[in-house]
Amino acid sequence: MLRASRSPVAVLWAILAAILVYLVVAVWPDWLIDALGRKKTFVNTLLNGLTLAGLYFLVASGFTLVFGLMRNVNLAHGSMYLLGAYIGYEAAAATGNWFFGAAVAFVAMALVGALLQVLVFRRMQGDDLRQTLITIGISIVAADLMLAVWTGTTYQFEPPEWLFGAVELPIVSVIRSSGDAVMIKYPVYRLTVLGIAIAVGIALWLFLNRTRVGMMIRAGVNDREMLAASGFNVQLIFALVFALGAGLAGFAGVIGGTALSIAPGEDVRYLLASLIVVIVGGMGSISGAAVGALLIGMAEQFGLAYFPTYGAVLTFVIMIIVLAVRPEGLMGGRI
Amino acid sequence: MTRALRNIAPGWWILLALLVLFPFVATEFFVLQIGAYAMILGIIALSLMWLAGYGGMVSLAQVAIAGLGAYMLPILGTNTQDVMGLGWPWWLTVLAALVVSTTFAAFIGIVAARTEGIYTLMITLAFSVVVFYFARQNYDLFNGFLGYAGVEPPTLFGIYWRDPTPFYYLVLALAVSLFAFVTYASRSTFGLSLQAVRDNPRRLRALGYDVTAHRVFAFAVSGFIAGIGGILLVWFNGRLAPSSISIDITIDILVIAVVGGLRLPIGPFIGALAFVLLDNFAIDLINRERFNTVIGIAFLLIVYFSPDGLLGLGEKLSSRLRQANRRTKEPAKLAEPAE
User: Fold this and answer.
1) Which of A51, B179, B191, B229 has the most CB atoms lying inside 10 A of its own CB?
2) Does the beta-carbon distance from B300 to A138 stay under 8 Å?
3) Do A286 and A33 meet the contact criterion of CB atoms below 8 Å apart?
4) Where are the extended beta strands (E) located within chain B?
């Protein structure tokens, strides 16, 4: 019965996937170029959307884990992204090693996150609103202090040299009249971002589904009282998850700061991205964060490329449709 | 009506008289930049207080609601940017602004009312930031990053309403009316059932109340209040840009409402006065550039130590004092039950 009711949806997905594969692989005929513009724009937008989705996933997965387990809406999550980026920048600039910067950003933010959980949020457990207000207060102060230390200048990381430059993809853009095929080029670093996001996603999935601690976290997301009653040290798990979430945000700061740039105001942008990704994907769900990040990243990039002054409306519409159809999010209730 | 008026404690009449007499003794700066500005921010924060205090829905979309309505003034009325400006008469643009604010708020209510508690906060925040980004990237309607300038209140009855004293009285009249309206509404049948919905939605649903409809209507009312605040704010500033509806302003309004106190309608006005005073005079105490740090820390302290805001702090102090008095003066008498 369930299978029967799902099959039309599955067919629809299959058709959509086939169309997408055709659009990417085929050399576009003239009528398609008339309808959608140049193929290069389309493929680049698609890849930009994918890499942005990867970045959003890195930021939002921590946000959704913290929310799912502790019911703590950490509105300072964007500040952690930005602070991680700045700290990582300083570390990378001091040592000249990009990887060291990324590691320092992760560790520093993980420490900040664990401290916040132990010193502040633990004292007001169960009082969602107060916790959230505290995180807003922290984000105000953090944004202002970061502005004081790092000023309004825009920073950009220098990635390791072998990540510089563009790579030719095995995708034909157009065939010249001479018969030469023009291939599509894309920055290596951006593809690396996508790879990192996928690797982190798989690692998180393995951690949550294949380890003992992951099992405790999943149990806690479902019913934290029961987990505590079963004799597990819930506070330790909470601190661990908060550290992991904050650390991922800081790490994402370095990744995002390399792909794009670091500047005041970026905290709000990534906070908004996390919020929407989590609302759309379902709160507390890692797979939801992946789906949500994909939707929002694509919406943002395609909006930017094809209707630049109405792009935000697209995000808006996605959010409203999801909330109207599934208020708990697309993957709500699943890890 | 007369009985209702007689029931108002004398303290309120004294406060009202002081506010009416204020322009006679104060300088123009105090009348406009402190008095009128604080009351305008108070009105927008009042719309949040109404939702959060009586409806239990902390909405971070109030500034976006007020701003979207206020954008109708330069778009439909007149502005000096050569973009849009359809030249409608002032009363029609004001009406349109209020309709837009109320409708948009009701719309947010429909979406947000399906969720509860902290979800409402997240969803309204997401809405508010999306409106900000939309206003910033759209040049056809909102004139993008630049926004609009030259938005003025009308000249009516021979009075130019942007002059300090008339503007102050206009704001005062609206603030007092809205304050009275919210107080009245909170005691009306709707207000009482809204508070019951806040306290126990499941029970109310079981009793046959339409919980969602109550929430949506509460949102619409808050949109109307915020809309009035938005119109006054754009008249006050004369200009409107995406930065006027950014997340910073949203958080300022939240800070005002929370610091003032979310339980009673006077709270937002107390918070707004404190905020405006700090905004104007903190420059003498600290480096002006670190204003947000001061505001943020004050906010953190209030949330941490007095969840009811300055209002709760004041009540705590006065009840302490009363207890101390009672102990010294009439040691034999038992403590009266709290009112």
Assistant:
1) B229
2) yes
3) no
4) 148-149, 155-156, 159-160, 239-240
